[in-house]
Amino acid sequence: MIHKVAAFYQFAALPDYRALREPLRAFCAGLALKGSVLLAQEGINGTIAGAPEAIDAFVRELAHGTLFGGRLNNLELKFSTAEAMPFGRLKVRLKKEIVTLGDEAADPTRQVGTYVAAAEWNALIAAPDTLVLDTRNAFEVAMGTFEGAVDPEIKSFGQFKDFAAEQLDPAKHRRIAMFCTGGIRCEKASAHLLARGFAEVYHLKGGILKYLEEVPEAQSRWRGECFVFDERVALGHGLRERGLREQELGHGRDE
């Protein structure tokens, strides 16, 4: 059986996120879905897998159902497949942030960097005055990244603000182009940099996964593989499965 995998997130005001946990868990369980979903006051973030029709029903409920009442009408969604179920169980967890940065001024619902489509990304990062910044963890960068990208050498995304304070200067770095696996970390990071006075902040819409899905390998500036936080471990161009099982690497979810 081929399993359909949905990676999704949206920053949206969910003041009732605690009350949403059990109904969402029950809905997912009824569809025999497995994976991880994070709920916070600032939105939702997750990756789940199951039968294609079950995933489709889940996405319809998020975007148009009564559970969220239309508040998730702008979901960032990416679909891929897995030959084996890539998750061992279903987890729906409550968090302070759907991606942890620890900066209250970084609010993507108020301000966020300029989205760049996958088709336009190559031209942006090839410009000589663009600082290309990988916002992922060091072990992810080691598996693959874009040509010429700066590695912040962080162990977790929560350390990004320290890197920015020490290594980035609004007067010097006039144009920054950021990327991450699915886009969510860049939304937070771009909001953080804009709040600190950086003038031009861009980020890859849909992240590396969207780029690998849409950009032909012959035109790609991506080198290596893209780490994903499930048992497939890594994906290549066309979102084809690569790599070892997550348990063997011992890395936890950061996106």
Report what the structure shows.
- It is globular, with a radius of gyration of 18 Å.
- Residues 244-251 have low confidence and may be disordered.
- Strands 4-1-3-2-5 form a 5-stranded mixed beta sheet. The chain has a 4-stranded parallel beta sheet with strand order 6-10-9-7. A 3-stranded antiparallel beta sheet has the order 12-13-14.
- The protein has helices spanning 17-30, 52-64, 118-126, 138-143, 160-167, 184-195, 207-214, 246-249; strands spanning 3-11, 34-40, 43-50, 76-82, 90-94, 114-116, 131-134, 144-146, 175-179, 200-204, 222-224, 226-227, 234-235, 241-242.
- The protein starts with a strand and ends in a 6-residue tail after the last helix.
- 40% of the residues are buried.
- The protein is built from 8 helices and 14 strands.
- Strand 12 and strand 13 form a beta hairpin.
- The protein is an alpha/beta fold and 255 residues long.
What descriptive keywords fit this protein?
alpha/beta, globular, five-stranded mixed beta sheet, 255 residues
